[in-house]
């Protein structure tokens, strides 16, 4: 993948594209980690393989892409396209990838390339929607801290965490055929919400898409996400707003307008309640 670096010849630089592991492999129980990236991309982000790849393609390796928020699109050698919206995960063979790009305002994702060190039945090109993404997001943030440590034991612990998550994602995808119908429906709705956070979603519209009552929709959201429909939609918009404000080209009023907040006052109040600081403080840190 490409990144912002003085030695990089890749022209499609993006807002935040940090190689957490690239110079050397890290081995832990279950996997050998070849590379790990955390990327926050904008509309200009477009990568072509193998041209933009930092390491040679390895036939025995796998790529897992975990989309935190926003959306991206991938083109494979068989001419198929895969659309990824937060929160979702997919496993691919790196030799199958032709290109990928941001689809929409932003695409925040963790990109991991690894080689299994034991028996691991990995589902190819099958996607799973993560309805409790906050748990994985926190673990991945912890992995970032550990993998950047100078202590080898902490590096190995980070990869052990990643191996655990990879097994969890494999299990989630493996359950695709046996999941309850209501879970499949709620996952489709969550994917639709993340794909179009600029839309002014109402609970009534969500219930209509699910073909259920608003009361039943609320029960489903609380069961599978731990939040009400309104809370989930608000949190998703605020997390997207936080990422947009880290980009140099957006003001607080522009972000509030883009994400359909009533006005800048309501946006700032909700933002501070969630994150503990005002949106304008991100502007001053640029």
TrEMBL record:
<dbReference type="InterPro" id="IPR018060">
    <property type="entry name" value="HTH_AraC"/>
</dbReference>
<protein>
    <submittedName>
        <fullName>AraC family transcriptional regulator</fullName>
    </submittedName>
</protein>
<keyword id="KW-0805">Transcription regulation</keyword>
<keyword id="KW-0238">DNA-binding</keyword>
<dbReference type="InterPro" id="IPR037923">
    <property type="entry name" value="HTH-like"/>
</dbReference>
<feature type="domain" description="HTH araC/xylS-type">
    <location>
        <begin position="187"/>
        <end position="285"/>
    </location>
</feature>
<dbReference type="InterPro" id="IPR009057">
    <property type="entry name" value="Homeodomain-like_sf"/>
</dbReference>
<keyword id="KW-0804">Transcription</keyword>
<dbReference type="GO" id="GO:0003700">
    <property type="term" value="F:DNA-binding transcription factor activity"/>
</dbReference>
<dbReference type="InterPro" id="IPR018062">
    <property type="entry name" value="HTH_AraC-typ_CS"/>
</dbReference>
<dbReference type="GO" id="GO:0043565">
    <property type="term" value="F:sequence-specific DNA binding"/>
</dbReference>
<dbReference type="Pfam" id="PF12833">
    <property type="entry name" value="HTH_18"/>
</dbReference>
């Amino acid at each position: 993948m490409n990144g912002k670096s003085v030695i990089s010849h890749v022209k499609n630089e993006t807002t935040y594209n940090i190689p957490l592991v690239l110079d050397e492999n890290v081995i832990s129980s279950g996997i050998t980690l070849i590379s790990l990236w955390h990327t926050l991309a904008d509309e200009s982000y477009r990568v072509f393989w193998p041209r933009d790849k930092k390491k040679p393609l390895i036939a025995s390796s796998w790529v897992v892409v975990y989309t935190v928020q926003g959306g991206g699109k991938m083109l494979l050698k068989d001419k198929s396209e895969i659309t990824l919206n937060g929160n979702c995960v997919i496993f691919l063979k790196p030799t199958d990838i032709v290109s990928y790009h941001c689809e929409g305002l932003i695409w925040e994702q963790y990109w991991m390339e690894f080689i299994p060190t034991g028996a691991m039945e990995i589902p190819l090109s099958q996607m799973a929607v993560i309805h409790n993404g906050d748990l994985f997001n926190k673990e991945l943030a912890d992995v970032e801290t550990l993998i950047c440590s100078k202590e080898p034991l902490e590096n190995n612990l980070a990869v052990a965490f990643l191996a655990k998550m990879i097994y969890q994602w494999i299990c989630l995808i493996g359950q695709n055929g046996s999941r309850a119908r209501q879970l499949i429906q709620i996952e489709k709705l969550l994917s639709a919400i993340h794909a179009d956070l600029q839309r002014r979603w109402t609970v009534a519209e969500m219930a209509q898409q699910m073909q259920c009552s608003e009361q039943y929709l609320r029960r489903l959201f609380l069961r599978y996400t731990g939040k009400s429909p309104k809370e989930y939609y608000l949190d998703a918009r605020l997390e997207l707003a936080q990422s947009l404000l880290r980009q140099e080209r957006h003001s607080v009023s522009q972000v509030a307008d883009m994400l359909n907040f009533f006005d800048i006052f309501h946006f700032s109040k909700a933002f501070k309640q969630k994150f503990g600081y005002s949106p304008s403080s991100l502007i001053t840190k640029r």
